[in-house]
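Dear colleague,

Thank you for sharing your sequence with our group. We've completed the structure prediction you requested, and as agreed, I am returning the results in plain text so they can be pasted directly into your records. Please verify that the sequence below matches your submission; if there's any discrepancy, let me know and we will rerun it promptly.
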Amino acid sequence: CHASDTYAAGSHHRHERADPQLTCASCHMPQRTYMVVDPRHDHGFRVPRPDLSQKLGTSNACNDCHADKTPDWAASAIERWHGPHRKGLQTWGDAFHAAWSGSTDAARLLGAIASDRNVPSIARASALAELAPFLSPATLTFARTALGDLDPMVRIGALDVLDNAPPTQLWPLVSPLLADAVLGVRVRAAALLAVVPAANRPPADRERFDRAADEFVAAQRLNADRPEARLTLGNFFARVGRSGEAEAEYKAALKLSPQFSPAAVNLADLLRRLDRDAEGEAVLRAAITASPRDASLHHALGLALTRQKRTDASLAELRRANELEPDRARYAYVYAVGLHSIGRRDDAMALLKRTLARHPTDRDTLMALTTFSRDAGDTAGALTYAKRLQQLSPEAQLARLIEDLQQQAAKPNASGSGR
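Please find the predicted structure tokens below.
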């Protein structure tokens, strides 16, 4: 490789200094395009892991250059040279793949990464952030430990874990970080604690929260020319009950970018909470005009129309959202519930089963299949889905449901049709 002798600090590459005619453009390193318009030869790459490419479908440095070869070829070559074990290099791929593919092992694998101090901090912080959907006593333990980590990235990752924690549990865990030495940690803590009602904030901590909240607002104001910052600020104001300011920020985001659908969705939701659903509908319809293929807008409009009891129109919007993003389990689930509510039970069950095939660990889909099967008299089918759900969420309520279904299945007239 022409670039094997790379980077002398603060200067050109050594091979360029040795021969001014040999420039980066003549390197054989793979070319990548940065910032959409800047094609460059990449002179850095990670330790090659073609074995992970075989297993997870990731890219690897070997096949970046040897594009005519397969990952199997590269993995076999590395194994011949260095043996079958990779000596701990980049061990976190399995965990993130499990999280992104909905594997039942995701929480366990992510927890192992998050708690391993030999793993780089950025990987530990990312693993913590990915644990947010898997809230449990175990993940709370990971978060509690990581909140005291020396690296601020890990502390922020620990705060991310708590995104779905009940507000009643947040203050004792998070409030100490309102006085953290790092601004990024303080403002993340303030954003998280904004869901705690002002009356429930201990008087001794209120001044620290107010200071950190002011810092959060100032940080977003620095990027006020970006719709993302206006959305973030709007969400913060909505959480602390400053509805007028939240509405203004959402509208400012949409003025900056009418195609920025998250601002429209959040504005419509704020208007719903203010009993202004008709205005929310108008916001969503205007956004759909700007972005007609944005599934999130159709989904939100479908929900708004459902609240107004405009069933046919709402189902049309929910169907459109599902058509635009058929791999989004949430959209399919909500549309299926709508179909079931108007008596189209077979269509609802067929959609849920297709969704389950794509997302075998989606809890909403499994619960709907359990409930709809039970209501249709298919006790055996309901029991099968409930047991699958229990593997994901071993809750007492599910145990009672399974017990009831087992008792029904044991009766002489219990249905086993599997409809």
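Summary note from our side: The two ends are 62 Å apart (CA to CA).

Kind regards,
the structure core
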